[in-house]
């Protein structure tokens, strides 16, 4: 621009630049603005979906305490709805945990394993993933899949869930007949529980039973 000698030359140069680049610039601006608006719309949609799922979830919880067959049936419908219509929300994973619990109580360990596996593989929340992992391992122990349970629990980064991991490992080891390893796992579980101020009388009983037996 410094080489131009007249104001007219500058104006002509600006016109020429606009003819060559202006349309692309305008398109870029529109795309950026559209992307921003699209992101905001996406966030709004996600929030509305989560709120709707929360309403269904709360309705399901109110039915959980009822023993009436009609309420149990409606609760099952709501659990299915959470998984089918709100699969993108955490409430779908909560529904899977409830379904797994129901399946265990009904003696359907295969279904329980399927539901819990889906949570372990999809949960983004660390606490939820650890909860599902421990429950899945317990189902595997009940099903006699002891090595699978131990492999699932072989995780050194479990944080506040160490007591649950160690206790369930102890259950699997005891079922395999390895009392020494089970006692060691239970001992670690007790220490981990004490570290976070948790009181687990059942865990202590498991450890005491092995001490008496030896």
Question: Could you provide a short overview of the structure?
Answer:
The chain has 214 residues and is mostly helical. The protein has nine helices and no strands. It has helices at residues 7-64, 69-85, 90-105, 109-122, 126-142, 146-153, 162-175, 179-195, 201-213.
Would you kindly provide a written description of the structure presented here, covering whatever features stand out?
This protein starts with 6 loop residues before the first helix and ends with a helix. It has 214 residues and is an all-alpha fold. Helix 1 (7-64) runs parallel beside helix 3 (90-105), helix 2 (69-85) crosses helix 3 (90-105) and helix 6 runs antiparallel to helix 7. It contains nine helices and no strands.
Helix and strand layout, with pairings?
Layout lengths: L6 H58 L4 H17 L4 H16 L3 H14 L3 H17 L3 H8 L8 H14 L3 H17 L5 H13 L1
């Amino acid at each position: 621009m410094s080489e131009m000698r007249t104001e007219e030359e500058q104006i002509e140069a600006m016109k020429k630049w606009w003819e060559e680049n202006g349309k692309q610039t305008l398109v870029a601006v529109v795309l950026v603005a559209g992307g921003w608006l699209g992101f905001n719309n996406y966030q709004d949609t996600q929030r509305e979906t989560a709120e709707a799922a929360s309403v269904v979830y709360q309705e399901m919880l109110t039915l959980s305490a009822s023993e009436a067959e009609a309420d149990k049936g409606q609760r099952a419908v709501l659990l299915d709805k959470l998984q089918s219509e709100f699969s993108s929300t955490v409430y779908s994973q909560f529904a899977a945990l409830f379904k797994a619990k129901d399946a265990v109580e009904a003696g359907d360990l295969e279904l329980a394993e399927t539901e819990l596996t889906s949570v372990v593989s999809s949960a983004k929340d660390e606490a939820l993933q650890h909860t599902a992992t421990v429950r899945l391992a317990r189902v595997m122990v009940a099903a006699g899949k002891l090595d699978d349970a131990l492999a699932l629990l072989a995780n050194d980064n479990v944080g506040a869930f160490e007591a649950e991991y160690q206790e369930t490992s102890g259950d699997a080891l005891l079922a395999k007949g390895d009392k020494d390893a089970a006692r060691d796992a239970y001992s670690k579980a007790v220490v981990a529980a004490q570290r976070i101020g948790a009181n687990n009388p059942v865990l202590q009983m498991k450890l005491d039973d092995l001490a008496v037996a030896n």
